[in-house]
Amino acid sequence: MTYGCSFEAEGILVKNFNNKLELVAESINVFGPCIVKDGYPFAPRKIYHPDYVRQHLHMRPRTSTFSCLLRLRDKMSTAIRNRFSEDDFIEINVPILSSNDCEGAGEIFTVKPENDYLIKEMTSPNHVSKSPMETFFNCKTYLTVSGQLHLECMARALTKVYTIGPTFRAENSKSRLHLSEFYMIEAEQAFIDNTEDLLKIIEKTTSTVVNKLLEESSDEIDHYRKIIGSSEDNDPVNLTKIPYEVISYHKACDVLEKENCFKNTMIRGKPLTKEHELFLVKYNGQKPIFVIDWPKNLKPFYTKALPNNESLVSAVDLLCPNVGELCGGSVREDNHDILKEKLCFVGLKDKLDWYLELRKFGNVPTAGFGIGFERFLQVLLDIPNIKDTNAFPRWPHNCKM
Does residue 324 contact residue 317 with C-beta atoms inside 8 Å? Predict the structure, then answer.
């Protein structure tokens, strides 16, 4: 069902999600008529393919399917904040403009003023800058790829912190699982120095949020999943059943090597592909599964080595149906000298001197994780394409509105 005109209703009988009649209005006052033949993209009582609906982002919220998605997205956001609040986490508004690339992967958007006169004015002899890209802030500035490093700073003062905010990736990917701008749920907690405690925080977050949504919005969730044809195998109830299964990276490789029928051959010591991740979820009965104890070369510089094996690190990926990796996290390296050596190795010593200094004064161990908000919706509702989880999706060659 789609809506074209703007109206005010009183006393109309309509069917709710349980197919029961409800009296909601007695009359309808039309404020903005909508004549379909004049170019309105959606005909009444007709269902359109998501690819077509996506071409009309400004009208998409008027379809019953997408308006349902937006309501559920709002409820998920509220459930996430309530989960953290109940456990005494403090929300931090981390910056969108950042002078560091958290992952060090170079998948960043650079920011500079559009006004050439301003750039010229700010590059006078009284201002030190090396290039137009560094003029405004005296250093290269990027759209954030993660708020993790800032949260690590806050956790040393406030113990439990989190953020929900936009992050950006300059990747030439048009897959069903990637966006150039998306939201991340990120949390950091002090006094955690082992993977086991981190897993408990992650699964408590996902299970609590899904439980709340199933309690309060089950009719709307069922309605949406039915409209888009969600698979019964991908039951969101599975996310509420904790503890989740845990498997080491090398054990996962053993499972994948026995299968040996993938388009992309599994190579031990290399990253898992999306195909590998989804197979492991299927191997686990379409239920969430943690992959832990990764080779250190597969995880970022800030990840702490295992106490009994320095070739492995205390990192975790949570794999779920439909999307594969939903969440990534780790125990952070808290040893000043070891972190200094790592920063020098990856060429970030000068850029992240403040990050190293956190380990010098009043240091404590911390651990944290990040969950892709849009992917979380994909798991809950079994949405095939991530572009249909966001009101205004951005991906390569597409930044409408």
Answer: no
